[in-house]
């Protein structure tokens, strides 16, 4: 379900909006979301240390991006 949704969003961003870059952040422990991003053409660009507070704790996130052209 999520794979189809992400592919649809990316198609819209490419065709209708003409976006060159789409980016996403994902908590480093979310393996399923990481695999989904990589499967849909996103590349890991780096790590955001203590990027967000989750349940009272600072958590690290990965920055992913999909760049056209």
Tell the overall outline: elongated
Proportion in helices: 25-40%
Spatial order of the strands forming the largest sheet = 1-3-2
The poorly predicted ranges are: none
Strand content: 35-45%
Overall average pLDDT: 95
Largest sheet data: 3 strands, antiparallel
- SSE succession: HEHEE
**What class, by secondary structure content?**
alpha+beta
Structure, explained:
The chain has 69 residues and is of the alpha+beta class. Helix content is 33%, strand content 43%. It has 2 helices and 3 strands. The chain has helices at 2-15, 31-39, and strands at 21-27, 43-54, 57-67. The protein has a 3-stranded antiparallel β-sheet with strand order 1-3-2, covered by helices on one side. Strand 2 and strand 3 (57-67) form a beta hairpin. The model has no long low-confidence stretch (mean pLDDT 95).
Considering the chains and any ligands shown, give keywords for the structure.
69 residues; three-stranded antiparallel sheet; alpha+beta
Brief description of this entry?
This protein is of the alpha+beta class and 69 residues long. 33% of the residues lie in helices and 43% in strands. A three-stranded antiparallel beta sheet has the order 1-3-2, with helices on one face.
């Amino acid at each position: 379900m999520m794979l189809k949704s992400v592919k649809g969003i990316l198609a819209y961003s490419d065709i209708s909006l003409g976006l060159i870059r789409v980016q996403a952040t994902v908590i480093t422990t979310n393996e399923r979301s990481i695999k989904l991003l990589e499967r849909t053409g996103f590349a890991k660009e780096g790590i955001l240390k203590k990027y967000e507070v989750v349940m009272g704790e600072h958590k690290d996130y990965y920055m992913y991006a999909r760049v056209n052209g």
